[in-house]
């Protein structure tokens, strides 16, 4: 019997050594969780045996249990390297249409040839579909989808408004409106341009020309707008007034551009203190808001197939009752544009991927826009140690682990996702080396017990 007891001790010591060696071997394996050999004594007793004199029957390996403590983080320069701090696992599937789920803490992900996010084994990372505002449309494991980074361009956005704030020089020399010619800088006092965009994302140059009216008795200026060298009328002009020619107090260029070819302008009226007070259309009609909306731009200017009905509003932020900091001014200083902004965007190319602590994957584009793509899913279990271990630092659900529960990072008991970081193995090398020395000592002691038992048997056999 003592042979068997010593053999069980040798076996247990070997299991301890194997476990320790496996931990040491995986000290640099990302997402690896150390294991611990757990032992129990063996004690067998029959109904009629004397319990007071019974000796145990050795030792038995009860379980090699993995320890799911947090590993330290190693930071990288790859946005697709992901680490979980706290509770949860990444979900993966081997094929796009597979439902054979595996779970891992190893976040070494990259893109495959189809722009799907995969690990080194080619398994697809799973995420939740998201709405346009970035909220998850579903958080069930059954509705997760493979995470894919789009290779499409960022959608353009047409310009609908231009906000213009400037100072017109009070001391400027008045000019004759009938002599206006955009090609002759002597026929106007100031000009400024802004790039605007059509519905296809193509760029166009919108230019504002300002003239101090020589025929006016007060501080009045007339402006005209050109788009790609074509005059752009403002909405509300009376029929016949504008680029097609006509008459009106704010039509300019009647002499220089030819009779009937005058350009539809707009009048800006300032107080004696330089405050912006009123705006008029080409026909002299007041515009109470100060917002100048163009007529539909048309196919002559937009010859590339974009929407010819597009209009652009120039916002001067008129406040006729009070002087505000957002209005144009007419002070005794040089012409200065203090703010010129438009709300259009060109076509954008993908410039980067951002993954937030909540797992939201957002694509950023060169036109300054960004859009949510998907949210990386996290999965947790009632009993992590009940998971079935697989190769490649992966686990699968089992009866002992409980059912897989999916959810969003940073919510409930789910941990946080760290982009550009990897979770290192939770192996303490110093502790493992000490455990190996202890296991070696136990192995040697049990081997010695075998040797002593063998010598005793030889002694008995030598009795004559």
Could you say which overall geometry the principal axes of the C-alpha atoms support?
rod-shaped
Structural class label: mainly beta
Extended strand count: 31
Share in β-strands: 25-35%
Helix content, binned percent: 10-25%
**Unreliable runs, pLDDT <50, ≥5 residues?**
238-246
For the biggest sheet, the summary is:
11 strands, antiparallel
Q: What radius of gyration results from the CA coordinates?
A: 40 Å
Q: How many individual helices?
A: 2
Overall mean pLDDT stands at 88
Q: Terminal Cα separation, in Å?
A: 24 Å
In short:
Strands 5, 6, 9, 10, 23, 24, 25, 26, 27, 28 and 29 form an 11-stranded antiparallel sheet that branches. It contains 2 helices and 31 strands. With 464 residues, it is mainly beta.
Describe the 3D structure:
This protein has two helices and 31 strands. Strands 5, 6, 9, 10, 23, 24, 25, 26, 27, 28 and 29 form an eleven-stranded antiparallel sheet that branches. Strands 12, 13, 14, 15, 18 and 19 form a six-stranded antiparallel sheet that branches. Strands 20-21-11-22 form a four-stranded mixed sheet, with no helix packed on it. The chain is 12% helix and 31% strand. The protein has helices at 2-25, 429-461, and strands at residues 35-41, 59-66, 73-75, 82-85, 89-93, 102-104, 110-111, 117-118, 124-129, 145-146, 161-167, 190-197, 203-212, 219-227, 230-231, 251-252, 263-264, 266-270, 276-280, 291-293, 313-315, 336-342, 350-355, 360-365, 370-376, 378-380, 388-390, 394-396, 405-407, 416-419, 421-423. With 464 residues, the chain is mainly β. Helix 1 (2-25) packs antiparallel against helix 2. A hairpin with a 5-residue loop joins strand 7 and strand 8 (117-118).
């Amino acid at each position: 019997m003592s042979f068997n007891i010593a053999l069980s001790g040798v076996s247990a010591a070997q299991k301890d050594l194997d476990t320790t060696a496996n931990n040491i071997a995986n000290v640099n394996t990302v997402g690896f969780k150390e294991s611990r050999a757990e032992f129990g004594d063996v004690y067998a007793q029959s109904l009629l045996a004397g319990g007071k004199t019974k000796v145990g029957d050795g030792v038995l390996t009860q379980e090699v249990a993995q320890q799911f403590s947090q590993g330290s983080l190693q930071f990288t320069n790859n946005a697709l390297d992901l680490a979980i701090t706290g509770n949860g696992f990444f979900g993966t599937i081997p094929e796009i249409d597979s439902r054979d789920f595996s779970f891992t803490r190893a976040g070494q992900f990259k893109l495959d040839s189809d722009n799907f996010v995969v690990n080194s084994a080619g398994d697809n990372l799973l995420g939740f579909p998201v709405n346009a505002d970035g909220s998850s449309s579903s958080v069930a494991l059954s509705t997760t989808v493979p995470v894919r980074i789009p290779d499409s361009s960022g959608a353009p956005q047409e310009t609908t408004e231009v906000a213009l704030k400037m100072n017109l020089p009070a001391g400027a020399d008045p000019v004759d409106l009938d002599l206006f010619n955009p090609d002759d800088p002597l026929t106007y006092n100031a000009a400024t341009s802004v790039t605007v965009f059509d519905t296809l994302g193509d760029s166009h140059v919108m230019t504002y020309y300002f003239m101090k009216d020589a025929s006016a008795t007060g501080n009045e200026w007339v402006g005209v707008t050109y788009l790609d060298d074509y005059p752009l009328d403002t909405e509300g002009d009376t029929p016949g007034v504008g680029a097609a020619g006509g008459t009106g107090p704010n039509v300019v260029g009647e002499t220089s551009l030819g009779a009937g070819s005058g350009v539809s302008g707009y009048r800006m009226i300032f107080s004696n203190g330089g405050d912006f007070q009123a705006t008029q259309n080409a026909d002299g009609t007041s515009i109470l808001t100060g917002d100048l909306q163009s007529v539909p731009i048309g196919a002559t200017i937009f010859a590339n197939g974009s929407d010819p009905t597009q209009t652009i509003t120039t916002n001067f932020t008129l406040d006729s009752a009070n002087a505000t900091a957002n209005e144009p001014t007419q002070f005794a200083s040089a012409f200065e544009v203090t703010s010129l902004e438009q709300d259009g965007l060109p076509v954008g190319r993908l410039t980067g991927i951002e993954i937030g602590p909540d797992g939201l994957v957002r694509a950023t584009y060169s036109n300054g826009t960004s859009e949510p793509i998907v949210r990386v899913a996290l999965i947790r279990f009632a009993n992590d140690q009940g998971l079935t271990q697989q190769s490649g630092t992966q686990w699968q659900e089992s009866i002992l682990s409980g059912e897989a529960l999916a959810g969003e990072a940073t919510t409930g008991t789910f941990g946080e996702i760290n982009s550009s970081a990897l979770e290192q193995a939770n192996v303490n090398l110093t502790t493992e080396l000490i455990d190996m020395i202890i296991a070696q000592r136990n192995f040697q002691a049990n081997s010695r017990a075998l040797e002593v038992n063998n010598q005793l048997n030889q002694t008995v056999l030598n009795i004559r």
